[in-house]
Write a structure and sequence with these properties.
The protein has helices at about 60-65, 75-90, 110-120, 130-140, 150-160, 180-190, 205-210, 225-235, 265-275, 285-310, 320-330, 360-365, 380-390; strands at about 1-5, 15-25, 40-45, 55, 60, 105, 125-130, 145, 165-170, 195-200, 220, 240-245, 250-255, 315, 340, 350, 360, 370-375, 395-400, 405-410. The protein is of the alpha/beta class. The protein folds into two domains: about 65-280, Rossmann fold, CATH 3.40.50.150; about 310-414, Rossmann fold, CATH 3.40.50. Strands 8-7-6-9-10-13-12 form a seven-stranded mixed β-sheet, sandwiched between helices. A seven-stranded mixed β-sheet has the order 16-17-15-14-18-19-20. Helix 6 links the parallel strand 9 and strand 10 (about 195-200).
């Protein structure tokens, strides 16, 4: 784990720390044995007053974090539905006179999003750093190369496949340690009328809804539109349009080209004005976010304490990476949450990092007849509530930890 001495984007040396979440294990480092003594690392946010980038001040080895991965996009019906919408919105922004050779997605996971383009008869190529996930994608017919994207891999892709017509970069840029090598790799792949689409979890949404659970070692950067545009422009990429997405609890999708004089949409112009008026890129705003996160910790623990006093059986739903941050920050263990249900079979019979809570299938968890379910993957709330009602006829209590403040209510109220 290396501590940075200057901004990841602009090299400014006077970055300012504003939120320390303590030492935590890697969020996706699920355990086979909960008695295993795991390593923990600093999880600290800082702010660059020069380019406005919010970032972690430590960097973990990406090979440790990403070479074997547990998240599968296809396990979420919300993500599958969004993939169709994302495909349609991307194709709307194409220059119709340009013939698409193939579509390249960086960090393509199991190919769920590329599948939608395949349905429209486009050739596709995925790149993912996790061998186990790449193997899954290839097995379902989505051609995927395993590797960490940058200039070197970009050159190899161009040499083997030529230049892509669309480049998709969803929820990966915040994970990248060497931002400029990654973006120069994209720039290298851009030719003629190539469309680049980048999606990131949006800093304003993180602040206003208190998504501190999105902070973990894999996410090195937390972008506002302002900080994102500065970084992209410094690498020869220019935003001309934007749309909002509800994925990951609230994201922005920007559409780019390598043309500096590309006309900007009215939506993009208004978005910039709105962000500026909301003081998103402001250190004091970020300090208030940190303060409120500690208040959330106290409120959430009080709710769980009430459940314990009333001797209710409490389980969780959704062993997400982001829930790992919240569980560890709030010091929650098996004493508060007995088990966690998750549909992803790769996670079954494992334990959550740091909090040591067993993960198993929804069927097994519901067989213990819980009184209360904590929706840890709260960003998929509607999907999970639908499943609890339809598949399990659950009639008990639901705790929704985020967005702030945490609430406890009966499922019939949802």
């Amino acid at each position: 784990m290396n501590e940075i001495k200057k901004c990841r984007a602009c090299d400014y040396e006077k970055i300012e720390t504003f939120f320390n979440l303590g030492n935590q294990p890697f969020a996706n480092a699920l355990l086979k044995n909960y008695e295993f003594l795991e390593d923990k690392y600093p999880l600290v946010l800082c702010f660059c007053p020069k380019c406005n980038l919010v970032q972690l001040n430590h960097t973990a080895d990406p090979k440790v974090l990403f070479s074997n991965y547990y998240w599968l996009t296809s396990t979420s019906s919300t993500a599958r539905s969004y993939a169709k919408h994302f495909c349609d919105e991307t194709l709307k922004r194409l220059n119709n006179s340009y013939k698409i050779s193939y579509i390249l997605e960086i960090a393509s996971n199991d190919g769920t999003f590329l599948k939608e383009f395949q349905k429209k008869n486009f050739e596709v190529l995925g790149v993912d750093s996790a061998q186990n996930i790449s193997d899954i994608a290839n097995s379902i017919g989505v051609k995927t190369k395993c590797g960490f994207f940058g200039q070197k891999l970009a050159s190899a892709i161009i040499s083997e496949y030529g230049f892509p017509g669309i480049i998709i970069v969803r929820n990966v840029l915040p994970h990248v340690a060497n931002l400029h090598d990654f973006l120069q790799g994209i720039f290298k792949c851009v030719k003629n009328d190539c469309l680049v689409v980048i999606e990131v979890h949006y800093l304003k949404k993180i602040i206003e809804e208190l998504h501190y659970d999105s902070i973990y070692h894999e996410h090195l950067c937390y972008f506002s539109l302002n900080s994102l545009e500065r970084l992209l422009n410094s690498n020869g990429l220019y935003i001309f349009d934007i749309m909002e997405s509800q994925i990951s609890g609230g994201s922005i999708v920007v559409f780019l080209s390598n043309k500096k004089d590309e006309k900007q949409s009215q939506e993009l112009i208004h978005f910039k004005e709105y962000e500026n008026n909301e003081n998103v890129n402001n250190l004091q705003t970020l300090k208030e976010f940190a303060k409120t996160s500690y208040d959330h910790k106290n409120r959430f623990n009080e709710i769980l304490k009430t459940e314990k006093i009333n001797k209710r059986k409490v389980v969780g739903y959704g062993a997400s990476a982001r829930s790992s941050t919240m569980l560890n920050f709030c010091n929650i263990t098996q004493n508060e949450i007995m088990q966690i249900a998750d549909k992803n079979q790769l996670k079954h019979n494992l334990y959550t990092p740091g909090s040591d809570i067993p993960i198993t299938s929804p069927e097994k968890v519901m067989n213990i007849n819980p009184d209360t379910i904590v929706i840890l993957a709260w960003n998929f709330l509607d999907e999970i509530i639908f499943e609890l009602k339809k598949n399990f006829a659950f009639q008990g209590r639901i705790i929704i930890p985020l967005p702030y403040p945490p609430v406890s209510l009966m499922i019939e109220e949802l």
